Automatic annotation (TrEMBL), chain A:
Residues 17-305 form the AMP-dependent synthetase/ligase domain. This is AMP-binding protein. It comes from Sneathiella chungangensis. Pfam families: AMP-binding. PANTHER family: LONG-CHAIN-FATTY-ACID--COA LIGASE (PTHR43767), SURFACTIN SYNTHASE SUBUNIT 1 (PTHR43767:SF10).
Automatic annotation (TrEMBL), chain B:
This is Acyl carrier protein. Gene3D superfamilies: ACP-like. Residues 2-84 form the Carrier domain. Keywords: Phosphopantetheine, Phosphoprotein. It comes from Sneathiella chungangensis.
Amino acid sequence: MYIPVSKLLASDRSGAAAVARIARQDVTFAEFKAEVADLRARIKKRGVTQVVLATESSYAFATGMLAAFDAGCRVTVPPNALPGMLARFVTPECPLLSDIKDEAHSDDHILIDGAKAAEASFRELDPDACSLDFYTSGSTGEPKRVPKSLAQIENELTVLDQVFGARLGAAATLGTVSHQHIFGLYFKCLLPLSEGRLFFPETFEIWEELLAFAPPGACIVSSPAHLTRIPPLDPLPTSAQAPVIFTAGGPLPFEAAQTSAWMFGPLPTEIYGSTETGGIAHRQQERATTPFRPLPGMETRVDEQGSLWVKSNYTDNGDWDKTNDIAELFPDGSFLLAGRANQFVKIEGKRISLAEIEKFLTASDLVKDAAVLVLTSPRDTLAAVAELTEEGWRRHAEIGAFRLGRFLRKELSPNLENAALPRRWRFVDRLPVNSQGKRQQTALHELFAGGEGAD
Amino acid sequence: MNEFELEIKKLVIKTLNLEDITPEEIDSEERLFVDGLGLDSIDALELGVAIQKTYGIKINAKNEDLKDHFASVRSLAQFITSERKEMDA
């Protein structure tokens, strides 16, 4: 039965109900409450009003979020738990709440360790007084804050329950996406938690592992990065097929949709949305031209430039928001996506700011200047052109171009997620610029011409 | 160089579109992921798919040693060889 997040801990849900499966053991609702209560007490003891919540386990995230809310804390949700990202947010006044042991913040760290309080009593939370601050790539290369009140989050979860609840039934949920992003948090963690369905705390990296853990008839929460890379496994038997496969983050190729259906049962349900607007629309790609249908409560329109605008129940102002996408709109409000409209790019379903990558790259001792671009064939790939320093060229001579590129990826990795690490590299004496000093995109792209897929 | 290891190095380079590197420059014992060759989790997914398609073997996730099998070209060669033997048996 669906219970809104704010009412969950004070509800009469059975203490024996399973919440999550951790290392093949089911954690019950009573144990979940005892863990939240213990964590709540430890947060209160700190006397802080805000925390940074970054966890490996989706279950730990759920306990941390509810404990922080109940302790009266505002919760910052960084897009990942990389050291460079945490360093931006964690202070003595805003400690890190995490299940990851972190030396760098050991004094400012409240460890989510599964400790249980003897007594766990709860009142309902005020959904307007609780909030999560998400962060997405900003246009300046700095992460941009996107606040969400628990009331907004619940509104959205309620709609998702109405639209998908019947198909989901009692299905357990496993995912290949992180709960530090809004899609993963809703579909892999908070929706199952609200609906009383079992969820798995892992973010599975390989399909074989996910399928080894999956009970028959489990819901899969994934992304184009994984659904375009399904190994040649045997299809799931009819009795074990997934009731729903959710995917988001970027366009799912038609072929990948068909392969997924052949392998797991249903055509993937693609959720189109953003951190700012929440889920906007959904579709199952029966044909490549199947349009996205808006979720209940969402309105859509396009402007003269073709940019898609949405009016959402889940945003602060309840006003029209411009998306980063170009769309073809049909009279009934459904639409097809036709490309990105601004300087952000999507790689492996992650919104990435090229300016941010360039900023971190030029911070390297080996790099004087850098340009990052997206190559579109055979799939969208990040490429970097770097002007090297003297030291950079010395390393280039020593270890070669391939290993230098890999070395620079490693230098970037404390600050950028895998998807934001350039995969192709060119090293040049001077970045191509025109007479106004602007970078020449064509010349940059030409540096990568011809090398594609060479045997 | 061991012929089969060379074949796998070529497969790694081709599958992942690695540039500016020849099979000879990959050491059979160097680590494929993170350190060494510096491959990432997306590379692991693609390499897993390519190996299963090329050699017709099934990778069983319950195999606890999966990470060790994918550690280097040498361990991968040994893993594929033993899986194929098992299938032929």
